[in-house]
């Protein structure tokens, strides 16, 4: 269970501190949770709270009873994180070396580690890319590798922050299908409303607040209405 209790996030700004996530209380236990919202709404900030990439300025966040501020390393072993741009995660020269890096804690010997990495690549259908430079991969291949590297350590939860945003339609569908097939619990931040609708529960974030929390179709309808409201207001403005 992921639990937030009055968790908020503030950042420094030119005019002083700015609140990017207002106090939020949630329990996330469903197998599939999606988070939607406009750019700058605070949804990625919320996602980063879930595995301790960001610590709350006030309140608390815990995963299976572990506090993200006090037990950050243990939390991150339970909660994997996939970024929008896989280039932020792929740091080794070749595909197999990148997965092997994730396995350095579980497999101390290099030969054993590479064998385990090869098994991970085979599981995700990219064993043929093992010796390829990560810089020579397509966008879809990079994102698939980033996901494989995170899941190689077998976390119990995967948080994915807009993992299909930089991909074409075909690769977006492939990555979306993969994410919804994994045994781990999934928290997915996305602009893809069709993908968001596949979740068990959807949060709508706006202005640093969770403004709707519920069944996906109803949440997406709420988000659409929210997104269309400024346009309607503009259309009715006089000269």
Automatic annotation (TrEMBL):
Name of this chain's protein: ABC transporter ATP-binding protein
Family named by the database record: Belongs to the ABC transporter superfamily.
InterPro entries: AAA+_ATPase, ABC_transporter-like_ATP-bd, ABC_transporter-like_CS, ABC_transpr_CbiO/EcfA_su, ECF_ABC_transporter_ATP-bd, P-loop_NTPase
Source organism, top-level taxon: Bacteria
Keywords recorded for this protein, A-Z: ATP-binding, Nucleotide-binding, Transport
ABC transporter domain span: 4-232
CDD domains: ABC_cobalt_CbiO_domain1
Keyword Nucleotide-binding assigned: yes
Gene Ontology MF terms in the entry: ATP binding; ATP hydrolysis activity; ATPase-coupled transmembrane transporter activity
Organism in which the protein naturally occurs: Leucobacter edaphi
Coiled coil regions, renumbered to chain: none
Record-level GO cellular component terms: ATP-binding cassette (ABC) transporter complex
